[in-house]
Amino acid sequence: MSIYALANLIARLFNVYEFMIVVWCIMSWVPRGIGHGGIDTFRDALGTLVEPYLGFFRRLMPALGGVDFSPILAIFALGIIERVVLSIIL
């Protein structure tokens, strides 16, 4: 595996995690109990993956006026981490 293929793989993994955060945020607007529990199961599984990361940013920046801005901060930080990791690899 070349170094560029590795960098591409790492960049895609960061993008997938960012997408997971966005999907989890959108799903948080959907009321629980819709459908036959499949949506709730998916939301819970997704929350298991993204909540630990978002929790760190929630401690740094609590909700303002009932709006949680921690996902925006988390995605921004993830982009910075991605650039640092890729600059080290390349």
UniProtKB/TrEMBL annotation:
The chain crosses the membrane at residues 12-30, 69-89. InterPro entries: CCB3/YggT. Signal peptide: none annotated. The keyword Transmembrane applies. Keywords: Membrane, Transmembrane, Transmembrane helix. Belongs to the YggT family. This is YggT family protein. It comes from Paratractidigestivibacter faecalis.
